[in-house]
Structure formats: structure tokens, C-alpha cells
Amino acid sequence: MPDITLILIAVALVLFVFFQFRTSRKRAKETAARQAAIGPGVEIMTNYGLYGTVISIDEDTNVALIESTPGTVLKIHRQTILKVVEEETPVVEEEPTQTAQLNQDNAIVAGEPEFGERIDPSETKPASRSSKKSGE
Questions:
Q1: Model-level pTM?
Q2: Separation CA 9–CA 102 (nearest Å)
Q3: Which of 3, 70, 78, 85 can pair with 62 through a Cys bridge, CB separation 3.0 to 4.6 Å?
Q4: For residue 108, what pLDDT is reported?
Q5: CATH code matching the domain that covers 39-88, chosen among 2.30.30, 2.40.160, 3.30.160, 3.30.1310
Q6: DSSP code of 78?
Q7: Distance between CA 32 and CA 37 in Å, rounded?
């Protein structure tokens, strides 16, 4: 009869292999989807932080031509393209409709520090010892 610990180790190993296989398939799908979205005219960012617009991609040699600034064309390896840059929509903040008012019952007195707040260090420091040592 097989030992229960041997069975548990085998089950753990099978689960480990299953999750590794699943993760690698998921990454492969994401990579394929990202590569499919890249085409001429798309603004991209490379692994090393260079932004540009794709001019052409050669599937056979995995070479992409990108234009980083007008008139500057760079030849890069296709796998260095990290992502497609999407236009960011500006966030419009709404103005508060009511103004906050101070609760007078729980107001903190100006002279007292809040919990954890540092106070002026000159008030709490003892006299320095350097003057005593220099006189000895």
C-alpha cells in the first residue's frame, strides 16, 4: 500500500505543473494579443522607454521601423515593443458644493502638538556637551 505522504507529494507536483502550464498559456495569449494590436500608424512604447509611431513591421526578420520624432526613423527588434500607447482622457475634478467648516468642539489648540507631530527641537534639547569637553 502506498504511503499517504508520497501521494500528497505527487498531487502537489501535479498541481504545480498544471498551474505553471496554465500561466504560460495565459502569457502567450496576452503576448499574441499585444503583437496583433501593433501595426503601422500605432503609437508604441519600447522596453527602454522610447516612444514612437510604427511605420512598418517586417514579420520575417522581426524588425520594426518606428519614427520617434519627425524625420527620425529607428530600426528596432519587434520584441522590444512593450505596449501600445493609448490616449489618456483628462480627469475633470468637480468643485465641492459645500465648504467644510471647523468643528469648534474638537478643535486643536494651536500651541499643542497633535499625536505623533514633532515639536520644535530647540525646546527639548539639553545643552550640548561639546562646550564641556573643550574646557577639560
A1: 0.47
A2: 63
A3: 78
A4: 57
A5: 2.30.30
A6: G
A7: 9
How far apart CA 88 and CA 34 sit, in angstroms, is 18
Alpha helix segments (H runs only) across 1-136: 4-37, 121-124, 130-135
Q: Which amino acid is present at 3?
A: D
Of 65, 68, 38, which is closest to residue 52 (Cα–Cα)? 68
Tell me how far apart the alpha carbons of residues 43 and 53 are, in angstroms, rounded to a whole number. 4
State the Cα–Cα distance between residues 81 and 17, nearest whole angstrom. 30
- Contacting residues for 18 by C-beta, under 8 A, at least 6 apart: none
- pLDDT for 103-133, tens place per residue? 666 665 566 667 777 776 666 555 556 555 5
